[in-house]
Design goal:
By secondary structure, this protein is of the alpha/beta class. It contains 17 helices and 20 strands. It catalyses: UDP-N-acetyl-alpha-D-muramoyl-L-alanine + D-glutamate + ATP = UDP-N-acetyl-alpha-D-muramoyl-L-alanyl-D-glutamate + ADP + phosphate + H(+).
């Protein structure tokens, strides 16, 4: 094979997709994963005659690559990655690689919170408008796999900071940055600026006729916006003040102005509730306006969107107690939004805990004080949570499984209460991932 040798590290959705695309483009491909591969992924690799290994990294089969495609889950400080870098070899992400082989327009969304919701909402809108559109990145099917076999005109891509880290020449046509709050600092030497720089990579390579959509109410975004030279059209969204071009609130009306086009819609007609979701809807509305979608399509999409699994997802009401699955809240800020959107005083039984990524719980203090009557910890080590809230919440208990957490919450609840699973932590101590945690929670609620 004349194209060179590509080694893919990590055999999940992203890695397998990248391996298949590389094979289709005539590269000599090898995939290596330190963990075990899912059977379905092994079948795909076998089907395309791609050699792979699991539960080990054989260095002589890896260090002879022309280029390495690294899955976003593998940290930069992994010993093998350090070795590859010391050799001066190029490491890229699946998104960077796939971007070389498509001429589709890309709408790329990043941010500490709201990415999946906003990405899904924009995709929903473009589908409704009848556009030929794919959904990928940190959500759904691998972008690379779709580039190999589909012929979409547009892609809506959710991009995490880890994916952006491995992107160099890739360019968004429309880049959306929702917000920046401390997250994943364990992967960024506990330096906030490293994480901020990573998020701002979404703006790299933007040209004059491309658009950068961002939240002008977000302090961190605004502080850093001034430091970088952007050639793109800047389209801010704000709930605090009116903007010339972009989106803002005119009383209770969401208003978009962009290149002579205008869009308006009452906030109470948005299907997604809560202040943070108004921001997500604003970002989507600007995107639709930039793409010159009809106003009635934008309006309908914003009013009939069903939301995302594991993100403030109502599960069931049992004996007057409402159970809500917000398992996707893997950081403090997501949980802040969840608690902020809860109505009523002292009626929330909050299920929290997991792998803490350097959390500062003090930012939740006033909301917890006002809304939470009991805390049910769901994690291996809950000492930090006890320490943060012991003087505020009379009842804090520890559980080790979703079933236990649901049962204990149910016992603590009364009619009109809400049991909110919003962990503010990663899930890897007791679960495979946040989806697994959310599903086990929902099953446990259904089994009450």
């Amino acid at each position: 094979m004349g194209n060179g040798r590509i080694v893919v590290l990590g055999g999940g959705e992203s890695g397998v997709g990248a391996a298949v695309l590389a094979k289709e483009k005539g590269f000599d491909v090898f995939l290596s994963d330190l963990g075990a591969l899912k059977d379905s992924y092994k079948e795909t690799l076998t089907k395309f005659s791609i050699p792979f290994e699991e539960k080990q990294h054989t260095e002589e089969l890896i260090l002879n690559a022309t280029e390495i495609i690294k899955s976003p889950g593998i940290p930069e400080k992994a010993p093998l990655i350090k070795k590859i870098k010391d050799k001066g070899m190029k490491i890229i992400s699946e998104i960077e690689f796939a971007g070389r082989y498509t001429n589709a327009k890309t709408i790329c969304i990043t941010g500490s919170n709201g990415k999946t919701t906003t990405t899904s909402l924009i995709y929903h809108m473009l589908k409704k408008a009848g556009l030929n559109v794919g959904l990928g990145g940190n959500i759904g099917k691998s972008f690379a796999y779709q580039v190999a076999f589909e012929n979409y005109d547009y892609y809506v891509l959710e991009l995490s900071s880890f994916q952006l880290d491995g992107m160099y020449d890739f360019k968004a046509d429309i880049a959306v940055l929702l917000n920046i709050t401390p997250d994943h600092l364990d992967r960024y030497e506990y330096k906030m600026q490293n994480y901020v720089d990573s998020k701002f990579r979404i703006t790299q390579n933007l040209k004059e006729n491309d658009c950068f959509i961002f939240c002008s109410d977000d302090e961190v975004t605004m502080e850093n916006l001034e430091k970088i030279v952007l050639r793109a059209r800047l389209l801010p969204f704000s709930q605090e003040f009116e903007v010339e071009e972009g989106a803002y609130l005119d009383g209770e009306t969401l208003t978009v102005k962009c290149a002579g086009l205008e869009f308006e819609m009452p906030v109470d007609e948005l299907s997604l509730k809560g202040k943070h979701n108004v921001y997500n809807s604003m970002a989507a509305a600007i995107t639709g306006t930039v793409l010159e979608l009809r106003n009635d399509v934008i309006r309908k999409s914003l009013s009939d969107f069903q939301g995302v699994e594991h993100r403030l997802e109502p599960v069931l009401r049992v004996r007057g107690i409402t159970f809500i699955n917000d398992s996707k809240a893997t950081n403090i800020n997501s949980t802040w939004y969840a608690l902020e959107s809860m109505k009523g005083r002292q009626n929330v039984i909050w299920i929290v805990g997991g792998v803490d990524k350097g959390n500062d719980y003090s930012t939740l203090a006033s909301l917890v004080n006002e809304k939470v009557k009991a805390i049910v910890c769901l994690g291996v080590d809950n000492a930090k949570i006890h320490e943060a809230f012991k003087d505020m919440v009379p009842t804090i208990i520890d559980t080790q499984s979703a079933e236990d957490a649901v049962l204990e919450s149910y016992k603590l609840g009364a009619e009109g209460d809400v049991v909110l699973l919003s962990p503010a932590c990663a899930s890897f101590d007791l679960f495979e991932n946040y989806e697994d945690r959310g599903r086990k929670f929902k099953n446990a609620v259904r089994n009450l």
